[in-house]
Write a structure and sequence with these properties.
globular; alpha+beta; about 20% helix; single chain; 9 helices; six-stranded mixed sheet; six-stranded mixed beta barrel
């Protein structure tokens, strides 16, 4: 039998071996990490000119599946300086959120109430500020293919139309109503026209013609806008036909909409695509947003069931937090965050609603929660050289000397034990393409009473499921692919 003295060297060697296994790439590893291949996730300086108007679609198990692309890889062929583009995305995203929070506070103060995040009026234009919307699909409207930005924060679907008094540049030809025999304007006294006030924040305007038709205006916080007439026409989502689809035919449009033909509104008002197709799809849709660092595809799935998805983890659901004043938006309750397996402790969790939005780029967190997250992340990633902060991102590193690094996992927990595991592509934002300035892709709100946002950067390679009939949101990991 071995005595204690004989066992001591053996046990000491095991402890030493364990320490060696923990130490990797010059730093002490914590619990949960993922390997980040820096070359794979660096943006490339040049791409071939590429258009997304020929994106694919299919029907599968009762669902309509549309291919999704990131807009920079559809119209990014002429970009010579990707560093400037990436930095511009952040600056515009910050301006967009500033405008959003300003509108929240203005509405709260004008009501005469104390400011309460759960009661604050979020502007109905929140999803399309300053051209920060990134993901597009191709549909067919009135017999013509159109690329549309997908936005869960907007309701009215619209396209630019001929003749156009003032239009921004787009790659595809403008929609021509006179070329579509099924095109018809919407009358001023219709229910669709009357619903514009709730859906867009602006009432429908009666035209001077007889009988008077309905004109719409959607204004955005940065001065962007779309104006035109409300109309309906046949919409084809892949092979699924939607008759008499109500949309905006924009005759006067201004803004940074990324050269797309228009916007697809996936909010919850009666004029949104979700509501107009509820008889076909049951108010049920989901998406998987592809990483912007690859030319891969994602998918927008309308209808169907979970058997259509290619998820690699079980779907976990959380309830949509109701807000009678803002029932067109999708709110949820953030109850916790873990970094590298370490659960953050903060009294703010579970006390304020978060907005989940496909239009905002970088997730915004309340200051106390972000402070705890930043401290824990730096604790677990402390051996890498720091880099200057940039715009809204204040936790940056110089990783240009590394080919790959191990990065702490980030997990977001929601009410009902739902969890979203942030993909490795959603942890860092490459401010510079050579990885000399790589920043943690989360940011703090300026004030505790501002509303938090779960943004598209952290939704990458996730199947995000919206069940409006059951009023619940689901999350599961999925490597985004259309095939």
């Amino acid at each position: 039998m071995l005595n204690g003295l004989t066992l001591f060297p053996f046990l000491l060697s095991l402890v030493f071996l364990h320490l060696l296994l923990l130490v990797h790439n010059g730093f002490l590893c914590f619990g949960e990490k993922k390997l980040l291949n820096l070359e794979e996730f660096q943006w490339k300086q040049k791409w071939d000119v590429y258009t997304c108007v020929s994106q694919k679609s299919r029907k599968e198990k009762g669902a309509t599946v549309l291919e999704m692309k990131h807009i920079d890889y559809c119209y990014g062929g002429g970009i010579k300086d990707w560093n400037k583009l990436l930095q511009k995305h952040l600056i515009l995203d910050d301006l967009r959120v500033q405008s959003l929070q300003f509108r929240i506070k203005s509405t709260a103060s004008s009501s005469g109430k104390t400011e309460d995040v759960s009661d604050a009026q979020i502007p109905l234009t929140s999803g399309v500020q300053l051209g920060t919307l990134n993901y597009i699909v191709t549909v067919e409207l009135g017999g013509r293919k159109m690329t549309m930005i997908v936005d869960t924060g907007s309701d009215l679907t619209w396209v630019q139309c001929q003749p156009c008094k003032s239009c921004y540049n787009q790659k595809e030809p403008l929609f021509n109503p006179s070329a579509s025999p099924s095109y018809q304007t919407v009358l001023c006294n219709s229910s669709a026209c009357q619903s514009l006030a709730y859906a867009t924040g602006n009432t429908g305007i009666c035209g001077n013609n007889k009988p008077p038709t309905c004109n719409y205006v959607v204004s955005y916080g940065d001065g962007s806008y779309t104006r035109g007439e409300l109309a309906h026409d046949h919409l084809n989502l892949g092979n699924t036909r939607v008759d008499n689809f109500v949309f905006g035919c924009g005759r006067n449009n201004k803004g940074l909409f990324g050269a797309a033909s228009g916007l697809m509104g996936l909010g919850r008002s009666s004029v949104s695509l979700v509501s107009q197709t509820s008889q076909l799809f049951g108010g049920f849709f989901s998406y998987c947003l592809p990483s912007t660092q690859s030319r891969g595809s994602g998918s927008l799935v309308l209808g169907g069931n979970s058997s259509v998805y290619k998820t690699s983890s079980p779907i976990s659901y959380t309830r949509m937090i109701p807000n009678p004043k803002l029932s067109t938006f999708y709110f949820l309750n953030l109850t916790g965050i873990s970094i590298g397996g370490v659960t953050l402790k903060d009294s703010s969790f579970g006390k304020g609603v978060m907005l989940i939005d496909s239009g905002t780029v970088i997730t915004r967190l309340p200051p106390t929660i972000y402070k705890a997250l930043k401290a824990e992340f730096l604790k677990q990633f402390s051996s890498f050289p720091s880099a200057p902060t940039f715009s809204i991102l204040d936790t940056c590193f110089n990783l240009s000397a590394y080919q790959e690094v191990e990065v702490p996992t980030i997990k977001l927990q929601f009410e009902g034990n739902a969890q979203m595991n942030v993909d490795i592509s959603g942890v860092f934002y490459f401010v510079k393409t050579d990885a000399s300035q790589v920043c943690l892709a989360l940011a703090r709100l300026k004030f505790e009473d501002e509303i938090g946002i779960i943004a598209n950067y952290q939704q990458r390679n996730q199947r995000v499921i919206y069940d409006t009939k059951e009023s619940k949101l689901g999350f599961a990991q999925e490597s985004c692919s259309f095939t």
